Amino acid sequence: MIAIFMSGAISMAVSLVGTRFLIRFFKNLGKGQPILTKDENNAVVAEHGHKHGTPTMGGIAIVVSAIIGYGVTHMRRGVVFSDQALIMLFAVVIMALLGLLDDVAKVRKGRNRGVFWKVKGYLTFAMSIGVALVLALTTNVARTVSLTRHDFPGWHLPLPLWVLWVGFMIF
């Protein structure tokens, strides 16, 4: 339990410093979020104008800080790397890459639209189902639904239903 708290504290500190660094870095590069300037009637949308040029890709600092926090706290003697935690950390990285792809597409095109939202939603859901399936097939994760404790209500789900259940929770 101490490793989890230490990991969170280290991740927060790295994220705060890293986010500040990335904001300056991307501002100096002139890489920022493009904003929709006209609506469907070709009228100027002023509500979002103040966001133009806001640096994007802040998820980089968050994901890197999570990896650093987990890695640093698990390098101590006697602390083991959990296969389930590593799979979830890998899933965070994979989903973050989709976000990075979206942000890069926005900045390169100079438009406020990166990966189409429906495509991004379907891809995220498919990745969530894939992560749940990998967890179920490669680890000894419990397939029991419990709301308070391991045995209450203690519904043991068959593999396909468990994968859908966990896939929706990850999504």
The overall average pLDDT, rounded, is 81
Structural class: mainly alpha
Helical percent range? 55-70%
Major sheet: arrangement of strands:
1-2
**C-alpha end-to-end distance:** 26 Å
Low-confidence stretches: none
For the report, how would you describe the main beta sheet? 2 strands, antiparallel
As a percent range, the share of strand residues is 5-15%
Number of helices: 5
Instruction: Tell me the number of strands.
Output: 2
The general outline is globular
What is the helix/strand order? HHHHEEH
Using only C-alpha atoms, the radius of gyration works out to 20 Å
Provide a quick synopsis of the model:
The chain has 171 residues and is mainly α. The protein has helices at residues 2-29, 59-73, 83-109, 117-138, 159-170, and strands at 144-149, 152-156.
What this model shows, in words?
This protein is mainly alpha-helical and 171 residues long. Helices cover 61% and strands 6% of the residues. It contains five helices and two strands. Strands 1-2 form a two-stranded antiparallel ribbon. Strand 1 and strand 2 (152-156) form a beta hairpin.
What's the SSE blueprint?
Blueprint: H1 2-29, H2 59-73, H3 83-109, H4 117-138, E1 144-149, E2 152-156, H5 159-170
Antiparallel strand pairs: 1-2
Helix pairs in contact: 1-2, 2-3, 3-4, 4-5
Question: Which descriptors apply to this entry?
Answer:
single chain; 171 residues; mainly alpha; two-stranded antiparallel sheet; 6% strand; globular
